[in-house]
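User: Can you write out an input/output pair for a complex, sequences first and structure second?

Assistant: Here is one pair. Inputs:
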Amino acid sequence: MTRPVYQKGLIYLALLAVMVFFMGPILWFWALALRSSASAFASPPQLLFQPTLDAFIYTFVNPGANASQLRSSLIVALGATLLNLPFSITAAYSMSRFRMRAKQFLMMWYISLLMAPPIVFLIPYFLIMSQLKLRGTYVAMILIAQTITIPLSVWLLKSFFDDVPVDIEEAAQVDGANWYQALTRITLPLTVPGIIVTSMFAFVFTWNNVVFPLILSNQSTATLPVGTLNYFATTGVTWNYIAATAVVAMIPPMIIFLALGRYIVRGLTFGAVKG
Amino acid sequence: MVSLFKSRRMLPYLLILPSIVALASLIIYPMLFSLVNSFQNWNLQTSAVPMGFVGLQNYQLVFTTTPFPDALRNTLIISIAGTFVEFWFGMGVALLLNSRLKGVSVARALLIMPTTIAPIVAGFLFRYMYYEQGGLITWVLTQIGFPVPPQGLLGNANTALGAVALADIWEWTPFFAIVLFAGLLAIPEDIVEAATVDGASGLRMFAWITLPSVSRTAIIVIMIRFMQLFNMFDLVLVLTRGGPGTASRTLSYNLYQEGLVNYNIGVAAAMTWLIVIIVTVLINMYARVAFRNWEW
């Protein structure tokens, strides 16, 4: 389709406005992390400034209170992702391959957990983890994260298992393989990309979660989002530190989403839209 | 899906069992805990254990001692308005991307960035820009003559909820844009051409070809997003803490305030069940529409 030049121009202009609207706030916050605290609230706002790494050095190097939070975030997100895989791979395979009376009900049950407000579980978890002396541990955060990661992964992985033609497995069975051999030698290898994509989403969902670490972590196990909130509790001058911490918290999900490419649609819709 | 291994009747259930047991053990306890304590008088600041059965009193206190009706109203407003704006704004952006001009793929890849950010961080982005003194949004609005209230957009009861909604619209419009754009790409070229030959263009093309083609996708993402908006907490925590007064208090924030700030475990437990009932009804309503004729 060919368009007149003026029409192309208008579309580019509109796209430019859209990009400024959506990327502007991110860049403005990155700029905050690189500013001196004096120019953070200058009025009129300063587009040009002398960049400094002071905020990053303070938060992650010296004294570097947030460096251990970066480690905690990694431990919790990786732990939650790895723990969820055996549960969700088996469930998703079953949901994809077998006919079951309760299938629709169970799939709806999983997705309703994803859509339930996490706050309703918060108070009981807070109290029970205190009683079990697990509050403040990574174990508590990784366990509770499963309420998000397992339902997400079951839905997402089922869509990837659905993509593998059932005929291949049937052929393997005709050749004498049992269902387990067919699964581990044929279907699972074909689903590896799907498992990787699912793991990336489970990682991002856990990484970006703040409510569970907010009540289940302590000073030494706090994750990065909790770290940003800690600077927020004290007033005034710490905006540069919030920004530096938040910028570091933003980067892993951004890189993962850039790598995910066309799988973004599928992941964000829990496999319901294949994209 | 064709069913395999018909003889192994228990196998499919054995494979699901671990996930069901894991999730149920994480969910049943909190639910029972809330049910039991919703009938107990219990403030954690005065007692480490429940202080006696009070019948349905907590359910009454939800309405008399917390701004539950206000929170419900705010939640409905922000969920409906937020989903509406995000969907149509996202549709507009998707149509721009669908122009398939050079450079669009780069725009598409970058556009999703707001959605990748943790909601709590998105909250900080906007809190910073909303500052009364030197905040970027405040400054821009003042320059174009918009009367920004002296307490800032977040500090004014008339604008606080809208300001929270704007942060959410910023974060989640790209989600709609990217998903709808994928739907637009899937529309077969010959259908568009046939409609063009028949003289359809502009709005009519959109109403009769484009919109119906993406309706299935649209319904699912609208459902997902509505529920996420309905549960909104992180943004409120950073931007307004539900204020000023109760102007931007959502159901989730109201529950947090009662349970983890005031430590009224009994009243919070009753509120938990009220919210669970509302959410269950909503999810069922949506799921029925979104997954109608779904191939499981």
